[in-house]
Amino acid sequence: MPDIDPSFLALPGRELAGAALNRARELGVEHADFRLERIRVGTLSLRDAHLDSSTDTEDVGLAVRVVHGGAWGFASGITRTAEAAARLADQAVATAKISRVLSSEPVVLAPEPVYADVTWVSAYDVDPFEVPEPERTGRLTELSERLLSADGVDHVDAHLVQVLENKFYADTAGTMTTQQRVRVHPDFTAVNVDRGAGAFSSMRTVAPPAGRGWEYLTGTGWDFDAEIAELPALLAEHVKAPSVEAGRFDLVIDPSNLWLTIHESIGHATELDRALGYEAAYAGTSFATLDKLNSLAYGSPVMNITGDRTVEHGLATIGYDDEGVATSEFDIVRAGTLVGYQLNRQMAQDNDFGRSNGCAFADSSGHIPLQRMANVSLQPAPDGPSTDELITRVERGIYIVGDRSWSIDMQRFNFQFTGQQFHRIENGTLTGQLRDVAYQATTTEFWGSMEAVGGPQTYVLGGAFNCGKGQPGQVAAVSHGCPAALFRGVNVLNTVSEGGR
Length: 501
Description:
alpha+beta, nine-stranded mixed β-sheet, seven-stranded mixed β-sheet, 36% strand
C-alpha cells in the first residue's frame, strides 16, 4: 500500500489545527473541527489520436467548522499560518452567532469514538501523477489509433481524469486523521459519420471510473485492449440497427447501465436530508420519507441494497468521513423493504439512529461538509446465474449495456433511462441490436419487477466522478456496484417518436 505523499505531510497541518481548535475552545464552542485539504486534478484529452489539451491543477486550503450556542458556523481560507487558522475560528464562531436565530433546534452530534492520529490510504498501485505525461498520452494515443484504424470509425475522442486527494482532519474531541485517495476515469468514444444522411452515431467504452491508479490503464481491474478491439463491431451493428417498437419488454440490464438507475432512484432517494426535506433545491427531495422506514416495499424480495464507504476501489470509499466517523457498510434495502438511510452525525442524533454511518463529505476546504452518498450497491445472489443464464429466461426482451442519458423527477420516483447498446432477445438468444430505446417506470414499480439478480461473477462496481448536490454546489465521486439483473414487463419507449421526430 502506498504511503501518504511526503509533500502533503510537510504542510503544517497539526500546527494549524492546534491554533484553530485552541481558539475555538477559548470562544466556548461545543464542537469544532479543522480540515487541511489538497486536491490535485489532472486531465488529458485527445481528438483523433492527437493531444487536444492537458491540465494539472492543485487546490490547497483549510477550513474550520464549529457548533457554538447550538448553531453551525464555518469559515475557510488559503493562508497557512497559525494566526490565519485562529482567525478562521473567530469567523466561524461569528457566523454561528448570526445563524443561531435561524436554528429551531440546537445542533447536537451523535457520539463517535475518538481516533487519535490514524492514517488511511486508498487501494492503488501506481500514483498516476508519478507517470510521465508522454507515457500517459502515449497509452491514450495507442488505443485511439486502434479505434481509428477500424472500418466505420471516423473520429475518436479519448479522455483521462486523475485525482490525488489528501485530507488532514482534527477535532476538539481528539480525533486526528490523515488520508489519501487516488482515482482515475479513462474513456474512449468512437464516432461514425453518415455524410449522406447528415447524421452520426457514437459508442463509448463502458469501463467505469475507479478508485485505482495508473495500473487501471495497463490491465489491472479492466482490459481496455479487449474492449477497444470489440467497440468498432458494436458500433457498426448499432449504426444499422432498426428502431425499437415501443411496448412492454422483459429487460436484462448490465451493470454498466444499472449503476446509474441505482444512483438516481435509490442513492439520492435514501439520503436522509432529502427524505426529511432539507435538501430540495438541487435535484429535489425524496418519496422515501422517514415515516416509510421498515415498511416501504421498495422492490422485490431479491432486492438487497447496501451503503458502503469501505469497499475496495470504491470512489466514495474513505477511512474516516469529514466528521471524524469511522466508515462502515450498512443496509438500506433488505429483501425489498426500506430499512436504512445515509446519515451524518447531526441527522443520526436528531432521528434516533444512534450513530452516523460516515456519510459526511466536503468536496474541498472551501465548502462545509454535507451528507453525501456512500457507495450504494445492489448485492448479487451468492449462487446466482450468469448474464447468459438470465438472457435464456427471456422470450421477448432487450439486453441493455452502457449508460447514456437519464431523467428523474424531483421526488426520485418517475424516471426514464437510455443506454448505449440494446440487444434484442428472442427465445433466450441475442438476435441483433436495436436503436432509440428508453425504459420508463416509477421507482417502486421498476424495482418491484426485478425477478432475479445475477451471481458474484456478474458484479461490477460502476460509478461517476460528478455527483452534484447542495447550494453552493458540491461535486463528489461515488461508485455503485451491481450484478446483471432481470426485470419483467418494463415499459419501453421509442425515443425518436417521443421526441416528435
